[in-house]
């Protein structure tokens, strides 16, 4: 019984370490495989994100774009936006802090497909965020893990 009490006490004391506030997600986050880093920053009362670093800032395969050229947003359906550089491109907009380590009602842009999705984010641990992009309902989507 004493051991159980000690374990419960330790869990309760550790819980605040994983609690987060609206600004605890700000900064650079690595994508899967460390292919890029997303910089989360304040945009008014909301959270936005932009591509802050790319492992390969130039096209390396001809099917992706002209080999050796700086990566641009060529898959964007709007011709006026297709020349934007991927590095520095805003890919997350309007995430609102919903409490309980969650941000909701955002829009995420995928430059690899040229499509935008609704998105939400959850602070899983001090060094891990789960970003979920979806169409319509959140169960129809994909979760991306970002790490510090």
Key descriptive features of the protein:
148 residues, 11% helix, 44% strand
Describe what you observe in this structure.
- By secondary structure, the protein is mostly beta strands.
- The chain has a single domain (2-147), classed as Lipocalin (Beta Barrel), CATH 2.40.128.520.
- 11% of the residues lie in helices and 44% in strands.
- It has one helix and eight strands.
- It has one helix spanning 2-18; strands at 27-30, 36-43, 46-54, 90-99, 102-110, 115-125, 128-134, 141-147.
- An eight-stranded antiparallel sheet has the order 1-2-3-4-5-6-7-8, with no helix packed on it.
- The longest helix is centred in the first third of the chain and has 17 residues, at 2-18.
- The protein is globular and about 45 Å long.
- The N and C termini lie far apart (38 Å).
- The relative contact order is 0.15.
Q: How many DSSP-defined strands?
A: 8
Distance between the termini: 38 Å
CATH topology: Lipocalin
Unreliable residue stretches:
3-18
Count of domain modules: 1
| CATH architectural label | Beta Barrel
Largest sheet: 8 strands, antiparallel
Q: How are the strands of the largest sheet arranged?
A: 1-2-3-4-5-6-7-8
Order of helices and strands: HEEEEEEEE
Rg from alpha-carbon coordinates: 18 Å
**Strand pairing plus helix content: what structural class?**
mainly beta
Pfam family, one: DUF2147
InterPro entries: DUF2147
Keywords: Signal
